[in-house]
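INSTRUCTION: Work out how this chain folds

Token vocabulary: learned, describes local backbone geometry

RECORD BEGINS BELOW THIS LINE
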Amino acid sequence: MPNPETTNETLPSAWEPSAHEDEIYRRWQEAGLFTADPASEKPKFSIVVPPPNVTGNLHVGHAMEHAVMDAICRRKRMQGYEVLYLPGFDHASIATQAAIESQLAAEGTSRHELGREAFLERAFAWKEEVRGNISGQMRRLGDSVDWSRERFTMDDGLVKAVRTVFKQLFDAGLVYQAERLVNWSPKQRTAISDAEVVHKEVDGELVSLRYGSLKDDEPHIVVATTRVETMLGDVAVAVHPDDERYRRLVGTTLPHPLVGRELRIVADTHVDPEFGTGAVKITPAHDPNDFELAQRHGLAMLTVMDEDGKIAGTGTRFDGMDRFEARKAVRLELAEQGRVVAEVRPYKHSVGHSERGGEPVEPRLSLQWFLKVESLAKAAGEQVRSELMPIAPEGLAARWFDWTDNMRDWCVSRQLWWGHRIPVWYGPAGEVRCFGHDEEIPEGWTQEHDVLDTWFSSGLWAFATLGWPERTPELEAFYPVSVLVTGYDILFFWAVRMAMFGGWVAQEGLAQAPFRELWFHGLVRDEKGQKMSKSKGNVINPLDWLDRFGADATRFALLRGVAPGTDVPMGESNAIAARNFVTKLFNATRFALISGAAEGFGASLDENSLTDADRWILGRLEEVRAEADSAFETGEFAKASHALYQFTWDEFCDWYLELAKLQLPERPDSTRAVLARVLDVLLRLLHPSMPFVTEVLWQALAGGETLVSASWPAPLGHQADPAALARVTGAQTLITDIRRFRSEQGLPPGQRIPAALDGLAEAGLADWAEQIRAFARVGVPEEGFNQTAAVESALGSGVVVVRFDLSGTVDKDALRKRLEKDIATQQKELDGTAVKLGDESFLAKAPEPVVAKIRARNETAKAEIERLEAKLEELR
């Protein structure tokens, strides 16, 4: 693939991501590098993108997830696999419809005024706009997806798959319609699943009210409730059968104080006689426990709220009131009758809220469509239990089994317009029939108005995106999908449901599980480990990071925190550090190329011509290659990133490049060959994480070929040389000790100080004198040398004494002030970390890596204060 911008002569002087990324991605795509070939003889590997909702931009969790998936796919391509990385988008019924309805409300209209067909036209137009935005953001991130196979959960292929599976389940008797208690969202006017309910602690009030006579010596009973408005739907009061206080009342009735209805007194073991008064009001159509009790006792189930959460059908003055308005009005009415028997007191309790709408959900009796899940869920559990579909991290298996072993029948219908309309039709004579995608609908039949839960179509994603129910080449080549990469927060929402449907279609000869492996990552949190939220002002916008730092830095910053199932603390400092790393890599490679590294690319290495530095860096390169490769294989992206970062910055850039500068004049060929070998391997190892900058640099080094299809580094054959390693590390230790001494004395970094190096030969460093003096900026002693200070450096094979002549070079007053300033800085650090470590609340909530980092900072500050105070004492 031609690349005129990245030859050695035209490599830019600095890396500007915005000047290169779009063009590089365009070339990749035009060359078809991401297009999968199902007919290829290569081993197959596949990932399907967890489809982002068409409701807005990618958030930081998406960015991290896409960085992980793309890194996996790029590495697999380099390893010789035929990779299908399939993109797609989810219609997100409730979220998308809510967004469009908000727009309509702002325009002074509604979906009902618009009509269903016109509303759907608007929804599809919205989808196209948002899909375009998100696909553009994926390109900016460098997602190497096969855009020719992009899918949408409501495209024609998915419609066919949904109708096929639904009909199969319907015909098998696993789909049924029933009036059941569901979680109702008054704001969205639809049922929602248990998994879409978020429980929050809220402040409420506990009202104790009296049924029956107001006289103590006549039949009565006292109950307590936090939802007093629901008493309008009460049909009974329940007590425990062994409760002596109420035994004589069981089987009798008490008049309802606000409606013309008698309340039965029933006995049920569900009631806890020790809690409150030991009596509970029964509102079957508005409470899950009451619903089950009513079924056991044959009680009526009266709905007293409409779809908007307003009181309806009671025949009282409360009809038409919002449920919260009615809560106050009913309590006041009962108080006026003298039925509020105790002071109303504040009461904090857990209340379910709609995840999408944000409002408290209302348990409501409603006619809905359900899917029997027992057999499907059992199969999903067995896929993991049998290790047919292993899960990582293993600790999440218990959570998986908790869902699959205890799942209730799934309410699959939603009272929405945007989504897959349930393929059930009603005949003119009351017939009910499910028609397949290729069946003709008889004249006069009307289709069910409700749509399917979003997760029904998403549950088919693993195989429907590959062309099922047709036996396409893609399905044959890439199914089951190699790995599912997704967050542990949607384990039940999505992963379990895909396993359920994957087990169902296995009856048609497909694999028993939809994935060969499940891999769950954690959530991105702020630098303190707290959940991100707009109210806290700690939300990271990945688009902002892409603009400011570029795709490579954004990806690397995110990947440096990723390990299976572990939450990722993240802040702007991470992005800045990653950007600096990209810059360091670019500048180091550019220097190597200017020094002729491209001439050494592909050259064989003559072992006899290699220096200690060469042998050391090549040995370390092989160790890092093996460590990073192993970490990538197990999904330990943080571990791989750390190893590559440390080697690149601390060993290659800070040490070997400086040594290479000294070697090049006398050993140009071998030094250039070593530079080329290290950069070749290093750029290939970094490519999955940082694809753009590595592409530019590697093409300049290798002569124009693309890194996308280069081979993944195999074992290099460079074994560690213990003797060379000992000499290099000894020299590093000595140079570091000299530099530390210079810093403590306040000597300018560039000032060359006369020094005698005693004991180099005994330490095995006789041949390192020139390098040590160059790195440490110390000169050879001349006539009149006057030792005023010395440093001893204990090395593995001896002690080197460095004697300095500092005559006239040290300003003791300035040095004293600097030491005092440094001590104050470290004391501030010590005090700050001590406060956090003494905060029990912080220690209980913060992730362990965050706490460990603060402990390490605390210990470092203590040690530094001791060292600096000792130096200050020497000046007194």
About this structure: Confidence is low (pLDDT under 50) at residues 1-7. The radius of gyration is 35 Å. The first helix runs from residue 21 to 30. Residues 177 and 368 are 6 Å apart (CA to CA).
